Amino acid sequence: MVAYEKLVMIGPASAIAVGGFFKALKNNYLYDGDTILINVVEGVNRAAEYMDSMNYTTQQIDSVNECKPFRREDYKNQVWRTFNEYFD
Fold first, then answer.
1. How far apart, in Å, are the Cα atoms of 69 and each of 4, 18, 65?
2. Would you call 10 exposed, middle or buried from its count of C-beta atoms within 10 A (0-12, 13-18, 19+)?
3. Distance CA 10, CA 14 (A)
4. Tens digits of per-residue pLDDT, 73-87?
5. How far is 8 from 12, CA to CA, in rounded Å?
C-alpha cells in the first residue's frame, strides 16, 4: 500500500509498523492533534520473499514482445481491497 500510494518500498518490519498505525487508528487509540512517527527505514533487499508476496505485477516472460502495459490504478485498488479486508 505504501509503495502504491507514496512510491516507497518498505520491508516487513516497516510494514508491521504501518499496519500497527492503521490498527491503532481503527481502535481509536489516536486523536486529532497527535503526532505520529512511523519508522520505515528498513530496506526491502533483506526480505525478497516478502516483496514477491506483495507484488501483484510479476509475470514470467520470455521476450520483450510479451510485455504489455498495465493500469497501475487497478493494482492500487487491489492492494486497498486486500488492506480493507484485513482491517475490517
1. 17, 30, 11
2. buried
3. 6
4. 887 888 788 778 877
5. 13
pLDDT (0 to 100) of residue 30: 93
Q: Which three cell numbers stand for residue 81?
A: 481491497
For 7: left if phi > 0, alpha if psi spans -120 to 50, otherwise beta; the answer is left
**The total number of structural domains that make up the chain:** 1
Q: Concatenated DSSP letters for 55-74?
A: -S-----SSGGG-----HHH
Domain coverage including residue 29: 2-47+55-87
Whether 41 and 13 have beta carbons less than 8 Å apart is answered as no
- Report pLDDT digits (tens) over 14-53: 888 888 898 898 889 999 999 999 888 766 666 667 666 6
